[in-house]
Design brief:
The structure is a single chain. This protein has four helices and four strands, in the order αααββαββ. It is an alpha+beta fold. Strands 1-2-4-3 form a four-stranded antiparallel sheet. The chain has a domain of 119 residues: Heat Shock Protein 90 (2-Layer Sandwich). The relative contact order is 0.10. α1 runs antiparallel to α3, α2 packs antiparallel against α3 and α3 runs antiparallel to α4. A hairpin with a 2-residue loop joins β1 and β2.
Length: 194
């Protein structure tokens, strides 16, 4: 009769360990392959949460403005037309009113999504035949106007309307967007020597 040896169980155990190690290496490889995707998704989720917080902050400000009875639409209409309500008779002023609304909305969206700001100041003022818009935040600064983006489109529309568009955004000190829109159609403006 042969004596049982330890060789058979050791061989069986070793084979099992090798199989488990091989399986663990496969799982590790799969995890590493998807780790970069996970990291990108995690970063996007973090950005989305920050954007959600920023939008919530801006919406609270908009609600506060509405509670005073003078929301953005009414304020712009008053400044552009000289009375509350949409422009009805002057096509040019209606275009300016619409452009001003879109410009303010685009700047607010950019502030919410990209600036990291904790406060925002917006100013609307009529100065003679001009509507002046200023939006400043205390965000990270360094903003640019990429071709084809929302701010670029607003900048072009303002320029084509004979207006002025300025972006001041030093790195680390916030961003200020200033827009001047003519309330009188540029072809109808008196010449400088008149």
């Amino acid at each position: 009769m042969t004596q049982p040896t330890m060789e058979a169980p050791l061989q069986s155990g070793t084979a099992s360990l090798v199989e488990q190690l091989t399986n663990a290496e496969v799982v590790e490889k799969q995890l590493l392959e998807h780790w970069e995707e996970y990291a990108v998704l995690r970063d996007k989720l973090t950005d989305l949460r920050a954007s959600q917080d920023s939008l919530r902050f801006i919406l609270e400000g908009v609600k506060a403005a509405r509670s005073t009875g003078q929301g953005l639409d009414a304020t712009l209409a008053l400044l552009v037309n000289g009375h509350a309500g949409e422009a009805e008779t002057d096509v040019w002023r209606e275009r300016v009113w619409t452009m001003a609304r879109e410009a303010v909305a685009e700047v607010l969206i950019n502030t919410a999504l990209h600036s990291g700001a904790t406060s925002l100041n917006a100013g609307l003022k009529r100065h003679g035949d001009w509507l002046l818009i200023s939006v400043a935040d205390n965000g990270r600064g360094g903003a640019a106007i990429p071709p084809g983006g929302g701010l670029h489109l607003i900048q072009e529309r303002v320029r084509l309307a004979g207006g002025l568009f300025s972006l001041d955004s030093p790195e680390g000190t916030g961003t200020t967007v200033t827009i001047a829109l003519p309330l009188v159609e540029p072809t109808a403006m008196p010449a400088a020597n008149d």
